[in-house]
Amino acid sequence: MKSISDNEFENTVLNSKGLALVDFWAEWCGPCRQLLPIMEEVSTEMSSKVNIYKMNVDESPATPSNYGLRSIPSLLLFKDGKLVDTKIGLNTKSTITDWINQYA
């Protein structure tokens, strides 16, 4: 799982082939901190199906603003650079892996 910034978003996510999941989070967000170990497990177990990235909304506000994100954590799933789905809030590992498998 790699942290990315607004400057890296286009090359890393929008110009990518296959699945890319971006976890929008912030240091002060309790549910975001709860989601971190879940996302680390998903990233390790599903690395052959999806690239997972984290974006701190305080350090990189432009991208979340472009997508109209109003709450975090927000998970945005992209396929071949196109947004295909979004999940808001704290989700279970099984919910996230099932969600990724729908698009893999």
Protein topology:
Elements: E1 2-3, H1 6-14, E2 19-25, H2 30-45, E3 50-56, H3 62-66, E4 74-79, E5 82-88, H4 93-103
Parallel strand pairs: 1-3, 2-3
Antiparallel strand pairs: 2-4, 4-5
Characterise the protein shown here:
The chain has 104 residues and is of the alpha/beta class. It is 39% helix and 28% strand. The chain has four helices and five strands. It has helices at 6-14, 30-45, 62-66, 93-103, and strands at residues 2-3, 19-25, 50-56, 74-79, 82-88. The protein has a five-stranded mixed β-sheet, sandwiched between helices. Strand 4 and strand 5 (82-88) form a beta hairpin. 26% of the residues are buried. The model has no long low-confidence stretch (mean pLDDT 97).
Mean pLDDT: 97
Strand content: 25-35%
Q: Supply the number of helical segments.
A: 4
Major sheet, described briefly?
5 strands, mixed
Number of strands: 5
Q: Helicity, in percent?
A: 25-40%
Instruction: Please compute the radius of gyration using only Cα atoms.
Output: 12 Å
Highlighted features:
single chain, alpha/beta, 104 residues, 5 strands
Question: Short summary of the structure?
Answer:
By secondary structure, this protein is α/β, with parallel strands linked by helices. It contains four helices and five strands. The protein has helices at residues 6-14, 30-45, 62-66, 93-103, and strands at 2-3, 19-25, 50-56, 74-79, 82-88.
